[in-house]
Design a protein that fits this description.
The protein is mainly α and 174 residues long. It has helices at residues 5-34, 38-42, 53-71, 86-101, 105-108, 129-154, 161-165, 167-173; strands at 115-120, 123-128. The chain is globular, with a radius of gyration of 16 Å.
């Protein structure tokens, strides 16, 4: 069975962005129940040299938008990292979902063969679309969503594996 570029990218991004948003909702409820300022958890990191929870959400959404734009032959989206509140991060996830859902399968057709270019810390990089999707952008997105989940769990938020996998997966396995 052939899998289209759209099917290989959009549903995975939707699943992870939706689950990340749900996990943040659990975090907000956790903070409210315990009188914790959400900014305290958003500033947490797993190790001194790792990104904060806020930055994990920012990077996850960046990779999600970047790959879809690249597969469609569009420039790397410019995202505002100055907004860091809980509400800002929820909006950023919503904006990412709207961006990704705004593409049709036809717009991503052939994206696996397009050259995807963008800047990272070490400088400009270029990938063939399929290589970027499967070996860079999706792994990056999963890493940052997983690390965000881990930070929230470490803070005491009662999350389950199914919260990470999202409601789409729950429906598929019963």
């Amino acid at each position: 069975m052939a899998v289209s570029t759209y099917r290989a990218s959009v549903p995975a991004i939707e699943q992870m962005m939706t689950s990340l948003s749900t996990c943040l909702d659990y975090m907000a409820a956790f903070c409210e129940e315990r009188g914790i300022d959400p900014a305290n958890i958003l500033a947490m990191r797993l190790a001194p040299d790792m990104f904060t929870l806020t930055e994990q959400v920012q990077r996850a959404t960046q990779h999600a938008q970047r790959i879809i734009a690249g597969l469609a032959g569009l420039p790397d989206p410019v995202l505002d990292d100055s907004k860091t509140s809980f509400a800002d991060l929820k909006q950023r996830i919503d904006d990412t979902l709207a961006f990704v859902r705004g593409f049709t399968p036809e717009q991503l057709e052939g994206g696996e063969d397009r050259v995807v270019s963008f800047e990272i810390r070490v400088g400009p990089v270029q990938f063939k679309g399929a290589d970027c999707l499967f070996h860079y952008s999706l792994p990056q997105m999963y890493f940052h969503v997983t690390t965000a989940y881990d930070i929230m769990r470490h803070a005491g938020v009662q999350l389950r594996k199914m919260d990470y996998l999202g409601t789409g997966m729950q429906k598929r396995i019963g």
